[in-house]
Structure formats: C-alpha cells, structure tokens
C-alpha cells in the first residue's frame, strides 16, 4: 500500500514504524554472538532495562485510534507480525549453527546468548503469535502456530482462546494470578495446569460433536508435529548441543510469557453472582499500562484491558483506558517484570493497588477469601 496525501495518518508507514523496533533485536543478537564475552547480555539489558529507561523519558501514549479503522489501512502494522515467523526462524537456527561452531563462545556465553534468544522468541515471538492467533486469516493463524512451536508452547493457543478469555478472573483460569501469590509459586503452577486445561478444552469441543480426542481435527496433532520438526531441525543444525540450546531458549521464552501473564491480571477477579455464574469480562479485569516505548516493543499488549473487552481488535486499534475505567500499572511491563521477580517488593507495590481496586469496583463484597484462595465455584 502506498501512502498518498489523502491517506489517513494511521495508515502511513511513519505511524507504524515505532512498532518495528523489534527488528533491531536481530542485529543485536548477532553482535552478541560475534563479540562474545559480556556482550551476550545485550539482549536482556536492552529489553528489560533500556526500554524501562526510555519509558521514563518518552512518557505515556493515551491517544486512541478509531477502532473501526478497516484492515486495508493497517497493512504496515500487520506485515511486521506476519514476517516475524520466518525472520525469527532464520535467526534462531542460524544462531544455533553459528554458536555450536564458534570457538570463542564458552559455556556461560552460550547460556547467556540463548537466554537472549529466548528473550526474542518469548517477548517478541510469543507476543506476536498472541496477536496473530486472534485474527481470521489462516496465514496469520499458521504464523502463530509456527512461532509457538519454536518455544515448544503450542498449546498456548488453545489455552488462551478456549480457557483464558472465557474464564479469566475465575478459579477455572490457571493464568489469573491470585492475590498474594508470588511469581515463583505461580510459574510452576501454570506450567502444570495450562497444558491439561488446553487439552481438555480441545477434547471437550470434539466431544460436543461426538468425535474422539484423537480425531485428526484436534490441533494438538499439528502442535506436536511442528514442535518435532523444530527439534529435529535443531539437531540437524547443531547436534545435541543445538538441541540443548534450543530447549534453553524455549524455557526462557515461556518464562517471559508467563511473567507477562502474571502481571496482566494479578489479584483481579470477576464477581461470583451465585451458582457458578460470573459477571461479564470488563476493562477493569485487566491491568492497563500506557507507557509509550514498551507498548511500541510489545505492540500495545499493555493495553490489555481493551484486548479482553475486544479480543479480535488489531493491536494498533486497541484503546487506552483512564484510571476511572481500568486499574493502572505504575510502570511498563519491562520494569514490572523485574519487580515481580522479587515477591516482597512486588507485594509492597501491587497489593495496596489490588485492595484499592476492590474498594472501587466491589464495595459490596466483604469476604474476599474465596477469591483470594480460588475456592469459588467453577463457572458454568
């Protein structure tokens, strides 16, 4: 699409370019690999700390685009998410090939380098897959599956679409972090619970059509096949060391994903109306963040309140909510992720905000223990 004088501002390449910042991580990864030494830490430093610092100076972006903007005016935004899968695959397996043959990279440097690759495949890859899995075109949903398979976390698509969006803020959603639950307790819990909940959701869909779980329409067959392909490719390119490095970056990618999941809904619950019935999902059931720079890197993922309100809305059209309509994080995800790794600091920062949220939206609830302990009935 070519911009003209009559092209709406949102449709111009210049408006979309800030969201292309993720492409800069690829040359940074290769600089890390070629230089070795402490340079292997460049990727986590850039994504965690640099964007947190930039957020302080860049400030907030509270402007909202027209949510009815048609897809044909969003080409420059869509293309970055569509091309990311081949870009990431070439980078990841090219890096495995290079690193397993590089004499200047020692053991700790390989671990640091592929920690950084996990930052890319998790912070960017899984995040882009999240955008793509919500869209209708098959090519976009396939790109989502390919990106998730590179992190060995393909079931996230089923869990996210069939469980999380439906049951967020209830005891049936594993990834809604409970009040006072530290991340180091949360992480192993969701790793064990999410796979089962995703598989059961797909099996239940097939059962409603009188089909067995092992019917070829179950997407888990595709998930397993894609993951095996990428494991085999890692073995072919880098031997068993290549497989080990692939597994390490996949673990780091999943850790980043679940760290974000932890932040997005910590302590926020939907009101139980009785008999397993819960209120509808509203913007105040997700934490909102308007930090400009981190929203560029994360393609507006921090406008999470609107994402749950309108799940298929493309990322440039996600709406920002004010403090009157949705709870606000004090910082962007990059800083909040660092804080979440230290549970006492996290609780000191976030628990007063959760309690204020309760007073604001649910003054009628006097006993919060069933919500805190996830002992309310499962939703019908």
From TrEMBL:
GO terms, molecular function: metal ion binding; monooxygenase activity
GO cellular component, one term: plasma membrane
A family per Pfam: FA_desaturase
Alphabetical keyword list: Cell inner membrane, Cell membrane, Iron, Membrane, Metal-binding, Monooxygenase, Oxidoreductase, Transmembrane, Transmembrane helix
Superkingdom, natural source: Bacteria
Fatty acid desaturase domain mapped to chain residues: 109-334
TM segment ranges: 12-35, 41-63, 75-98, 110-128, 223-248, 331-349
GO annotation terms (biological process): lipid metabolic process
Localization of this protein: Cell inner membrane
Membrane topology, record value: Multi-pass membrane protein
Family as reported in the entry's similarity comment: Belongs to the fatty acid desaturase type 1 family. AlkB subfamily.
PANTHER family linked: ALKANE 1-MONOOXYGENASE 1
Protein name per its UniProtKB record: Alkane 1-monooxygenase
Organism: Loktanella atrilutea
């Amino acid at each position: 699409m070519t911009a003209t004088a009559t092209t709406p501002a949102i449709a111009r390449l210049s408006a979309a370019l800030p969201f292309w910042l993720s492409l800069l991580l690829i040359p940074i990864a290769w600089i890390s690999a070629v230089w070795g030494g402490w340079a292997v830490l460049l990727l986590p430093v850039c994504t965690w700390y640099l964007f947190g610092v930039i957020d302080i100076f860049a400030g907030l972006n509270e402007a909202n685009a027209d949510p009815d903007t048609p897809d044909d005016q969003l080409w420059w935004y869509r293309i970055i998410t569509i091309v990311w899968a081949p870009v990431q695959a070439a980078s990841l397996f090219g890096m495995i090939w290079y690193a397993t043959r590089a004499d200047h990279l020692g053991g700790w440097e390989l671990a640091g380098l592929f920690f950084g690759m996990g930052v890319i495949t998790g912070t960017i890859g899984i995040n882009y897959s999240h955008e793509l899995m919500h869209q209708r075109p098959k090519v976009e949903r396939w790109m989502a599956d390919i990106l998730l398979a590179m992190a060995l976390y393909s079931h996230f698509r089923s869990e996210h679409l069939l469980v999380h969006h439906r049951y967020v803020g209830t005891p049936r959603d594993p990834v809604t972090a409970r009040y006072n639950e530290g991340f180091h307790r949360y992480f192993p819990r969701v790793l064990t619970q999410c796979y089962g909940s995703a598989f059961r959701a797909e099996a239940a869909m097939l059962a409603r059509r009188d089909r067995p779980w092992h019917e070829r329409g179950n997407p888990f067959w595709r998930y397993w096949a894609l993951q095996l392909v990428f494991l085999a490719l890692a073995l072919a390119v880098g031997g068993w060391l290549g497989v080990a490095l692939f597994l390490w970056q996949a673990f780091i990618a999943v850790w980043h994903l679940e760290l974000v999941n932890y932040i997005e809904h910590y302590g926020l619950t939907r009101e139980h109306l009785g008999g397993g019935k819960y209120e509808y999902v509203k913007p105040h059931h997700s934490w909102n963040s308007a930090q400009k720079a981190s929203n560029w890197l994360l393609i507006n993922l921090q406008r999470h309140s609107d994402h749950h309100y309108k799940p298929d809305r493309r990322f440039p059209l996600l709406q920002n909510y004010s403090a009157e309509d949705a709870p606000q994080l004090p910082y962007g995800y990059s800083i909040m992720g660092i804080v979440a790794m230290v549970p006492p600091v996290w609780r000191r920062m976030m628990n007063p905000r959760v309690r204020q949220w309760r007073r604001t939206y649910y003054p009628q609830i006097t006993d919060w223990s069933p919500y805190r302990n996830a002992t309310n009935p499962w939703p019908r």
